Amino acid sequence: xxxxxxxxxxxxxxxxxxxxxxxxxxxxxxxxxxxxxxxxxxxxxxxxxxxxxxxxxxxxxxxxxxxxxxxxxxxxxxxxxxxxxxxxxxxxxxxxxxxxxxxxxxxxxxxxxxxxxxxxxxxxxxxxxxxxxxxxxxxxxxxxxxxxxxxxxxxxxxxxxxxxxxxxxxxxxxxxxxxxxxxxxxxxxxxxxxxxxxxxxxxxxxxxxxxxxxxxxxxxxxxxxxxxxxxxxxxxxxxxxxxx
Length: 244
Known about the structure:
Layout: E1 6-8, H1 10-18, E2 23-29, H2 35-46, E3 51-54, H3 56-62, E4 70-74, H4 82-92, E5 97-101, H5 107-119, E6 124-128, H6 137-142, E7 152-155, H7 158-167, E8 171-175, E9 192-196, H8 205-208, E10 213-215, H9 228-243
Parallel strand pairs: 2-3, 5-6, 5-9, 6-7, 8-9, 8-10
Antiparallel strand pairs: 1-4, 2-4
């Protein structure tokens, strides 16, 4: 069965995935078993659907209906193909600005970043299919509806997306404290993709190895880092400042 943002029941979720619905994430009851559950697992893996094992109490909180050990969340937006979006953007914009979110997990932070991205003219946001924050009601609310205006691409691997952007002539810059280079020392006027990391770990070390530049924001207080949505805003508005 289905409501506005959820599908519950194993068979209903299988049918939704096979019908091409934008299933953002599936929550599976821990230690769930049975032939139908095995079928669901096969369909999710075949279609690269993000899923998480959770206690039954979590599923009971998500829906009061008979969930049969599985609840799926439906994305309120469609996702873009990265190669198509980049090609179309480069045709109309000589200096596009993309934003890559590496394993960002909090839906509210995601929504806040989308809102700032829309205000700063970001051409598209790139996230990884597995492990990234869902596009759900919290995301929509925190973005103030901006989620409907900014193209979002889901990719299998962030590093592959970076390689593709670099091959398309787009420079990549990662926000990280593991550098001596200040953001304000860099040229942000060229075709650019800014990489922001997760709330707790920052940009993955394997991603840092393949990007073109690293940059940090100057910090003068006793706290060593900013909230990721605030840091993303600082990076994006510096790009805007330089481009005006």
